[in-house]
Amino acid sequence: MEVIFKVFFVYFVMPNVDCWSIFGKPSVPRFDHVWWGPLYSKYHNDTSIRPFEVHFDEEMINDLRYRLKTHRPFTPPLEGVGFEYGFNTDHLHGWVDYWADQYPFQQQEKFLNQYPQFKTNIQGLDIHFLWVKPHVPPTMEVVPLLVMHGWPGSVREFYEFLPHLTAGSIHRDFAIQVIAPSLPGFGFSDAAVRPGLGATEMAVVLRNLMHRLGFKKFYVHGGDWGAYIGLSIATLYPKEVLGFHTNLPVSISPLAVAIWVLGSVYPPLVVEPRLANRMYPLLSHIYWLTRETGYLHLQATKPDSLGVAMSDSPSGLLAYIFQLVSTGSRRKFYYRSDGGFDELYTRAELIDNLMIYWITNSFTTSSRIYAETLNLRNINMAVFAIPTPVPTWTIHAKDEIIYQSPTLLRLKFTNLLNSTILDTGGHFLALEKPELLADDVQNGIAAFRSWHRQNKKNKY
After folding, report:
1. What are the Cα distances from residue 52, in Å, to 188, 189, 333, 398?
2. Average pLDDT taken over every residue of the chain
3. pLDDT of amino acid 25
4. Which residues contact 35 (CB under 8 A, 6 or more apart)?
5. Beta-sheet pairing, 416-421 with 218-222
6. Strand, coil or helix: what is 146?
7. Which of 172, 247, 335, 345 makes the best surface tag, with the fewest CB within 10 Å?
8. Using CA atoms, how far apart are residues 37 and 365, in angstroms rounded to an integer?
9. Burial of 411 (0-12, 13-18, 19+ CB in 10 A)
10. C-beta atoms surrounding 368 within 10 Å
């Protein structure tokens, strides 16, 4: 208790004291441009920007259909359960049959190719990205925005989001061009051939992608792992990031954790009363996170073993990924036998995401982000705890996996301009509420631009 009261005194009674002088402020790590691809390719590296298209070839489709139709009988669920034990197999047959017999492969291939896509080699890895530019008058300023997905997502999450995001408006003096990469090891982007490429190192790769495209300064948006990579870019390169927008902001320093715990004694010290149930009782939230993150512990330790099963069985891939989509979308779906999918998404858009994992055989390589990030190397770097001065704007869905109040977030994001609170939505906000999220991103960028105009002499 003495430590808790010390935190209270430092943070609330002495707000002008540099709390890091007490708790110890880690230094910003510096990364060389590590080569993550095969060593032989280092000496004849192609740095061009090459067009790319998704292709569903007939051989792949036939093999996939065969695997979906010849699966072993699913084990029946226990009586009276929803998704408490994972994907309810009473409803798995319908999804497997849809994928095999009703999913419109050629139509969806065309759909996935509707935006310009490219690849370019960064640090030995061919990085895939969408590059969508707005249709606006040449007199309007166009600003670059790096948009990043997470796991078990892909760039498919952004397809309905992009038109709203890039739409021009007479009410704004700017328009947005979007660069949306497949994270290294995800989808159509290459995976590292040697250990060490975690989310922090990916931040360097994707920052260098923006440089390759000619953007020395840019805005960033991310959710899930994209949020972590985004805060890493904002921490490592604060002079290059004009603003950071995220729907999953996190502040995880010793002080933040201590204040979070202190709030369980008296929540109004940490969070508005109307939002207190999103953070407290603390033990109930810890229990929920522990219950729903078994996949995280497995992927952080043995992703390759798990990947053997997921790469061999599309039915298994569907069940494994979809249970996480259900849980992340609404907590109440835990008790529904159908997982609640059809309430929020179309079947085609969810299978589109699976197709990206299946045709690229990237489940294993994407899952390694957990093992490469949730380890002592990254914990000791403490990028997640180092404050960044980059102006930040956050949005919080009601059913997001975690909520932190501005009191905690400002310990990480010292120039937190706004936190938008939603009474709806879940973890996959770009897919579920694309127009709402796009509006918030645009509002955030408008605020960032205003902030920079007011702080022209601000040197950080």
Report:
1. 10, 11, 37, 37
2. 93
3. 66
4. 42, 123, 124
5. unpaired
6. strand
7. 335
8. 13
9. buried
10. 22
Task: Give me the sheet containing 416-421, strands edge to edge.
Answer: 50-51, 117-122, 125-132, 174-181, 141-148, 218-222, 241-246, 392-396, 416-421
Among the listed residues 126, 190, 224, 440, the single catalytic one is 224
CATH number corresponding to 1-54+118-291+387-460: 3.40.50.1820
Token reading at 263: 């709030």
Task: Please say if 266 is a catalytic residue.
Answer: no
- Nearest to 227, CA basis, from 375, 459, 458, 437: 437
CA distance to 2, 167, 226, 314, per residue, from 407 (Å): 21, 34, 23, 44
- Give catalytic status of residue 427 as yes or no: yes
Residue 370 designated active-site: yes
Q: Which of 103, 403, 427, 440 is catalytic?
A: 427
User: Could you write out the DSSP letters of every residue in 305-335?
Assistant: HHHHHHHH-HHHHHHHHHHHHHHHH-GGGGG
Which of 95, 444, 22 is CA-nearest to residue 245? Answer: 444
**Contact at 8 Å (CB) between 125 and 189?**
yes
Q: Domain limits of the chain?
A: 1-54+118-291+387-460, 55-112+301-373
Outline where 330-414 has alpha helix (H). Answer: 341-344, 347-360, 363-373, 376-381, 406-412
Report whether 188 contacts 52 (CB < 8 A): yes
Report pLDDT for 33. Answer: 81
The answer on pLDDT for 291 being more than 50 is yes
- Residue 458 pLDDT: 52
Q: Are 163 and 198 in contact (CB under 8 A)?
A: no
Can you spell out the DSSP letters for 150-184? -TT--GGGGTTHHHHHH---TT-SEEEEEEEEPPT
Which one-letter DSSP state was computed for residue 99? Answer: I
* Environment class of 405 (CB within 10 Å of its CB; exposed 0-12, middle 13-18, buried 19+): buried
CA 288 centroid distance within chain: 20
Q: Is 0.85 topped by the overall pTM?
A: yes
Given 320, 370, 396, 403, which residue is catalytic? 370
* Omega before 104 within 30 of 0, i.e. cis: no
| pLDDT one-digit tens code per residue, 204-247 | 999 999 999 999 999 999 999 999 999 999 999 999 999 999 99
CA distance 82 to 310: 23
Q: Residues with Cβ < 8 Å from 159, sequence gap 6 or more?
A: 111, 112, 114, 115, 349, 352
